[in-house]
Specification:
2 copies of one chain form a homodimer. The first copy, chain A, has about 375 residues and is of the alpha/beta class. Helix content of chain A is about 40%, strand content about 20%. Chain A has 15 helices and 16 strands. Chain A has an 8-stranded parallel barrel with strand order 4-5-6-10-11-12-13-14, surrounded by 5 helices. In chain A, strands 1-2-3 form a 3-stranded antiparallel sheet. In chain A, α9 links the parallel β12 and β13.
Chain lengths: ~375, ~375
């Protein structure tokens, strides 16, 4: 087990990058997809299935965990890895994004953000120092700086204010992080909305502070895919080439491959599990809405050639029945199908970059998804 | 694979019996516990976990399956085993009990029962012949006669009326079942409430019709455990010794062992999964309510020596957290824990009968559950 964080870039193919992140809990191969374990669990899916899908790293949510069961309790129980029995790498976010999207009476000030817990109404202060402290208590392999994320579209002045505040918080997080255990890593977060000058200023200032990795925040928050990919394409090259790059909260398999093509190494998204619970399967053939009536008598599995048992072993008719009957097993099975598929997409991306044929892989994937050969979704 | 139904009694120990039921989908060792797969799924638990727990036979509910997705659709998809991908033995009930407990505007007549579907309000007729037809379409290994089950306490005249009607329906089911595939079996159901004269009359009349096995119905419907066990103790000896005996809808591990001691071979109950979803774990140490606050910081697993990975691998603190956080994984894990424990109780019962020490096993189990050594439940 490596004792400290380390990133190694092993190949490039155009802007696409192949790499390895060493952490105290094992190696992560990049480009990597991180399923979201919001409350120290991947919703509806057993850890063993998450792992079997090919998951090398999970994301945990600082906001949720600090409220329940609390970072101190998790620390007393041996840290997040031991608490949830996931002995592999974990990245925790800083809580900033959830404060913005979930908390009431949120108030952002220079010192930090104060908010009312959505659970019990308690007023809670989250400063850059506390965000880092919580993540050290959780013991994640990769911690994120506290930032302020602005929903798009927004005024440039508002985007700039939040970006500058996030930079000052980045410096405070870096200082606070000096108490972290050997091997823990801290990532900075580039803000700046859809304004490329602000993105560039943010990226250069963060690089000057020097982090173990760099995230692009404030995307997938209401903008179009075109805008997002433009920001990614123009910002990624400004980040240090020898550190991992993480596009937060993205996205569909197509979003992910397009961002890999533009130099991104890490992704997280709730889509595989959230959409799975709602009856949407991501497959080689594009998305399949299993709740549609035409699946009711279809004896075919979702994908007879899948590596995923749930995609091979159960008929579409049976999966359809589980959703119609309100059986939670349906959501679990489709979540598993989706986790496998997302990881398969990443395996394919890594193999393609290694072979210098990532552009072909992207084009073939696009064509396959668009062919609708198997979905009959009308 | 045996081509026809067969029961072999291999040992007895007092009134307790050890046996094997051969079915077209494999052998069931008795005493056996059948988890309930109401809608062609064990709620919240993957089939592979149900099987790994030691489950040899499942119960499916005719009432639910005839309404959704319909027996005809299941038949078109290859029968219930293929539809739900459970290639092992399945017993289906007749629908009578659910009609009583779930349907609206239920009307019982000589011909059968008519009721309004709880799903779409459609009026549906369930006759003895239709109940058998549905179960033949589902293709279960063991089908049950249609009966009328009366909640206790009830007037003797009402219990007798329902018992006599159930006997006439038993004859009609037997005739209708002649069309069943080779190897399918049909069980009769003894009714008679808590009146031993009625129970005896029902048992003798059913034996005269001759079934592949005999169930005790109309228990676990409101009476005390004492009353239930008295009926079991007095009725079981009146049933043919060379056929399996099934106590429907029972019960706790204690109920089951007490009934085994009185000559019962088969059981079904929703308790392992329903109670699991509500935070109650059945363990060697007695029931543990994982939602109780004192588990919040307890790093111990539910049972470090369990054969069940979920009972060994996750701390009580983590399981407690999952329930507090509303994560469905908590209910899934406790359901798995409970399914393993129920099957372990049955494995222990079979071993004890084989060794001629069932009375000791029962006494030890009672003492262990009562010791509360590990539950601190107050």
């Amino acid at each position: 087990m490596p004792s400290s964080f380390f990133f190694r870039l092993t190949a490039t193919d155009g802007a696409a990058r192949l790499g390895e992140i060493a952490t105290p809990h094992g190696v992560v191969h990049t480009p990597a997809f991180m399923p979201v374990g919001t409350q120290a669990a991947i919703k509806g899916v057993h850890h063993d299935d998450v792992r079997a899908a090919g998951t090398e790293i999970l994301l945990g949510n600082t906001y949720h965990l600090m409220l329940r069961p609390s970072a101190e309790r998790v620390a007393a129980l041996g840290g997040l890895h031991a608490f949830m029995r996931w002995p592999y790498p974990i990245l925790t976010d800083s809580g900033g994004f959830q404060v913005m999207s979930l908390a009431n009476l949120r108030k952002v000030a220079e010192e930090g953000v104060t908010f009312r817990s959505h659970l019990d109404g308690a007023m809670i202060a989250l400063t850059p120092e506390r965000a880092v402290e919580v993540q050290i208590l959780l013991g994640s392999d990769i911690a994120m700086q506290l930032d302020e994320c602005v929903r798009l579209p927004a005024e440039r002045s508002e985007i700039e204010r939040a970006m500058q505040l996030s930079l000052r918080w980045a410096e405070r997080c870096k200082r606070a992080f000096e108490k972290a255990a050997l091997g823990q890593a801290l990532f900075g977060i580039v803000q700046g909305g859809d304004d490329q000058n602000l993105r560039e200023a943010s990226a250069r200032a963060l690089a000057a502070i020097s982090f173990d990795g760099y995230a692009l925040g404030g995307l997938a928050v209401g903008e179009t895919q075109d805008v997002m990919l433009k920001v990614v394409a123009e910002t990624a090259p400004m980040l240090p080439a020898d550190k991992p790059r993480y596009l937060m909260g993205v996205g569909t398999p197509a979003d992910i491959l397009e961002a890999v093509a533009r130099g991104i190494d890490m992704f997280d998204c709730v889509m595989p599990t959230r959409n799975g619970r709602h009856g949407l399967a991501f497959t080689r053939f594009g998305p399949i809405n299993i709740k549609n009536a035409h699946h009711a008598e279809d004896p075919r599995p979702l994908d007879a050639e899948s590596r995923c048992p749930a995609a091979r072993d159960f008929s579409r008719a049976y999966l359809h029945h589980l959703f119609r009957a309100g059986e939670a097993l349906g959501g679990t099975l489709l979540s598993i199908v989706n986790l496998y598929y997302y990881q398969d997409v990443m395996v394919g991306a890594r193999a393609a970059i290694a072979a210098g044929r990532f552009a072909d892989y992207l084009a073939q994937s696009r064509a396959q998804w668009a062919a609708k050969s198997d979905r009959q979704e009308s």
